[in-house]
Amino acid sequence: MPLYTLASKRPFSEQIRFDIAQVITDVHCGLTGAPTEFVNVVFMTGFRMRRGTTLGVNGNVRMGGDRNADLYQRLNDQMHRRVAEAAQLDISRVLVTLIGIEPHWVVEGGMVLPPPGEEAGWLERKNAVHAAMGIGPA
Amino acid sequence: MRSLIAIQEGQISLEQIKALEKMLRKLYAEHIGPEKLTVIWNVAARQHTITDRKWSRSSTVTMEVPDGLETQRREAFMLECEKSWREVTGQHPDQVSVGAFDQSRYDEILKSNLTRLSTLGRVSYLGKLFTRAMISKMQHGVMITRFNQ
Question: What pLDDT digit, counting tens, does each position of A41-63 carry?
C-alpha cells in the first residue's frame, strides 16, 4: 500500500510502463514521505475506457496520521500531471482517483502497516523482526 | 463476501493456488464468519507490476470483511493469512500484502475500478471476468483470470 492500478485499452511499451511507475513512486513518496518499498503499481490492459479517457489511474492509499485533505488534493493533481507526461498523453486523457484506506486494514512485510508519518519506526521494527527470524532483504 | 488476489505470471503453481485458497477459506471461516467467500485470482503478465521501483514478484491479497470488524480480530486474521501464505509459497514477507477491508469501502474500490471504463467496457469486462472465472473453475476448481486481456 499504496496500490496504484492503471487501466488502458492498449498496453504501453515496457519502457513507458517502467517510467510511469517511477513517476508514481516519485510523486507518492515525495509528497507523503512514504518509503518507496510500499509503492505497488499494476498495469491492466484490454479495457474499454470511458469517453475521453485513455488511462485510468486508481490509487488505494493510506489515510489518517499526518495526511490531510490538502495533501490528497496535491497528490491527485501532481499524479495527474506527471503520469500524463510519462505516458505521453494529454492531461485530459488521464483520470486519477484516490481512495483512502485505514492503515491497520493491511499487513505488509509481516506486520500491520503504520499510520502515515510513523513509517521510520515501523521499518526499524520490521527489519529487526526479520533479522531475528533470519530473513534478509527481499 | 469477495476476495481478489493479484499474483505474478509463472510465480505460483496451480497446486499452490488451490492450497492457498483452501487456507484462506479456512481462516476466513475461523476468524470472520461462515459467509461464502468468492475468491478470484488475477494473474498479471510479466513486467506489468512494479514494487519499490523494480519489476515485482509480489502478491496482493484483498478480502472483504463486515463493516466495523474489531481491530484485534481483523489484525489476527490478516497476520495468520500472511504467515500461512508464505508457508505455501516461500515468498519473502516484503512480497506479500494482505488486506481485510470493510465491505462498504471494498464496494467503493470495486465501483471506482469500473467507473473509469465505458458502459460497454464494464459489460465487456464483467462478461470476460465471469466467463474466464467460470471456465477456470470448471477446469481447475479455482477462479483464475488475467489483468491483461
Answer: 999 999 999 999 999 999 999 99
Flag whether A137 is in a domain. no
Give residue-wise pLDDT tens across range B45-66. Answer: 999 999 999 999 999 999 999 9
Residue of B52, B61, B81, B82 for testing the chain A interface, max A β-carbons within 10 Å: B52
Contact B1, B63 (CB under 8 A): yes
Burial call B83-114: b when 16+ CB within 10 Å, e when fewer:
ebbbebbebbbbbbbbbbbbbebbeebeebbb
Alpha-carbon gap, residue A71 to A94, rounded angstroms = 20
Q: How far apart are CA A75 and CA A93, in angstroms?
A: 18
Domains, in order of start, for chain B: 2-146 (3.30.429.10)
Beta-carbon contacts of B97 under 8 Å, excluding residues fewer than 6 positions away, are: A1, A3, A40, A106, A107, A108, B58, B59, B60, B61
d(CA A82, CA A59) in angstroms, rounded, equals 14
Count of the separate structural domains present in chain A: 1
Region label for A109, one of left (φ > 0), alpha (ψ between -120 and 50) or beta (otherwise): left
Is A18 in CB contact (< 8 Å) with chain B? Answer: yes
User: How far is residue A16's CA from residue A22's CA, in Å, rounded to a whole number?
Assistant: 10
**Residue closest to B4 by CA, chosen among B52, B31, B46, B43:** B43
- Nearest-10 crossing angle of helices B71-89, B14-31: 160
Chain A residues touching residue B95 (CB < 8 angstroms): 138
